[in-house]
Write a structure and sequence with these properties.
Blueprint: E1 4-8, H1 16-28, E2 31-36, E3 40-45, E4 52-56, H2 66-77, E5 81-86, E6 89-94, H3 106-119, H4 121-141, H5 144-148, H6 151-186, H7 196-221, H8 225-252, H9 259-282, E7 297-300, E8 303-306, H10 316-320, E9 326-336, E10 341-350, E11 356-365, H11 369-380, E12 387-391, E13 400-405, E14 411-419, E15 422-429, H12 435-445, H13 448-454
Antiparallel strand pairs: 1-3, 2-3, 4-6, 5-6, 7-8, 9-10, 10-11, 11-15, 12-13, 13-14, 14-15
């Protein structure tokens, strides 16, 4: 028979009625509270008994200060035995049938509770709200293309947004309870009971914290070696940042600090905790794993070529109508989510007479017109020393088309073409695209519905 057990106790520090009812029920089953952690509480086996429990707020200061020891002695003389410290509160138990109440003045009790909540509970939620808001704003103000092509970035954004709402709801719930309790005390009553919805919200918050980590680890485990390496460095940096924050807290514990210095320290800790994730979040995310095709290769003029090149949407043969005996092709998925997908294609082609051609194009599919326009605008505001010049999209069979040029008007051989739901960034070397070749390119790279319409 086990003599120790653990329970998830998702209670807010000011949920006195909920804690007292829970501990009394556990004592009736033969379990006494041994230690109250954040959410995981431990219990030791004892004889089942009718035990009364009470939660109180001790004087401020360390556990061994004279005021706290005197307060504990007063509780003991009233028949209460200290069971555990918990989140700035203290939990007491008594087996007496009718013990002396620990708190006889609800007004003073509420004042102490409010002071404790401001320095602990509310400050903690505020700091985590700032941290979550940092990620929400960073995603909203960052690169739409990189964000919507990364399942990891989308997951981190949704998690941060939910955490922001949960922390905000917890803080608002406390103020709602405090205002109700303040009114009740002013009218001569006791502290207000905690609403059932807030107790459920606390459970949702704790459950979400425990469920947040596995999907992120799964995303990293299923990703590419680069994403796993990046995630590993981010997690290591996070552990170091947490250690630094805990070390600062331990060093400064008990030292007097002004509120301004405390605020600065809190912001520094939030920034340090966020720092390891910045490079991790900037990575576009692991590309969908697709099996590499078996390619039979050979060597010609010091370069590797494919004996049987894989199929890609557009080739140099399609553009020139000529056979290229030496060809090397690649196709790589750059990202795939519910919102967008991107594939990068390349082809190098050569002939025995020394003629060479090179194609490189990236096809980005985005069903949302609004998102498609945002990504298009982001691509067009690329390198500052280059500029996109609008050109007639009719030869491409597209909605819009741009040609990338140097400031002096020289072309770079790159085009940006947009159809409904698709963007193609196209570059050709060794080929001067004619209107006919642009039409072939548009027919090959356009979405399926547009291809059928152009035939």
């Amino acid at each position: 028979m086990k003599n120790k057990t653990f329970r998830f106790a998702c209670f807010a520090p000011f949920d006195f009625q909920g804690v007292e009812k829970h501990l009394s029920a556990m004592a009736a089953k033969g379990w006494r509270l041994e230690k109250a952690g954040g959410s995981l509480w431990s219990y030791r086996r004892a004889e089942p008994a009718r035990v009364r429990c009470a939660v109180t707020c001790p004087p401020e200061g360390e556990e061994e200060t004279p005021d706290r020891l005197f307060f504990q002695d007063l509780c003991a003389s009233a028949g209460w035995e200290k069971a555990a410290d918990w989140a700035g509160m203290q939990i007491y138990t008594s087996e007496r049938e009718d013990p002396t109440p620990l708190e006889t003045d609800p007004g003073l009790f509420l004042e102490r509770v409010h002071r404790s909540m401001k320095s602990g509970y509310l400050r903690s939620h505020l700091g985590q709200m700032v941290f979550a808001a940092f990620w929400v704003l960073r995603a909203g103000l960052g690169s739409p293309r990189r964000f919507f092509l990364s399942n990891l970035s989308i997951g981190m954004f949704l998690s941060a947004l939910l955490l922001l709402l949960l922390h905000g709801s917890c803080s608002a719930g406390y103020w709602f309870w405090y205002r109700r309790s303040l009114r009740s005390v002013e009218e001569g009553g006791d502290l207000a009971p905690l609403p059932g919805w807030f107790r459920a919200l606390s459970r949702v918050y704790d459950l979400w914290i425990f469920l947040l980590l596995p999907p992120v680890l799964l995303e990293l485990a299923c990703g590419t070696p680069q994403s796993i390496r990046t995630g590993a460095w981010a997690l290591l940096g996070t552990l170091m940042a947490v250690g630094l924050a805990l070390g600062l807290n331990r060093y400064l514990k008990g030292r007097t600090m002004s509120r301004e210095n405390q605020a600065v320290l809190a912001l520094v800790c939030v920034f340090v905790l966020a720092l390891p994730f910045i490079e991790w979040d900037s990575y576009p995310g692991p590309a969908p794993e697709t099996p590499e095709p078996e390619v039979d290769e050979y060597l010609w003029q010091g370069q590797v070529w494919d004996r049987e090149p894989q199929e890609i949407p557009l080739t140099a043969e399609d553009l020139t109508g000529r056979t290229w005996p030496h060809v090397r092709r690649t196709a790589r998925a750059e990202g795939r989510t519910l919102f967008a997908s991107e594939i990068r294609y390349t082809e190098a082609a050569a002939r025995a007479d020394g003629t060479r051609a090179y194609l490189h194009y990236v096809i980005t599919d985005i069903p949302s017109d609004r998102l498609c326009r945002a990504v298009l605008d982001e691509i067009r505001t690329g390198p500052s020393f280059l500029q996109y010049q609008s050109e007639d999209p009719a030869p491409w069979g597209a909605e819009t088309a741009w040609r990338l040029e140097y400031p002096d008007g020289r072309t770079t051989g790159e085009w940006l073409v947009q159809w409904p739901g698709r963007i193609a960034a196209f570059r050709a070397e060794g080929l001067d695209l004619t209107p006919e070749q642009k039409a072939v390119t548009g027919t090959r790279l356009a979405p399926e519905g547009r291809k059928e319409g152009t035939r």
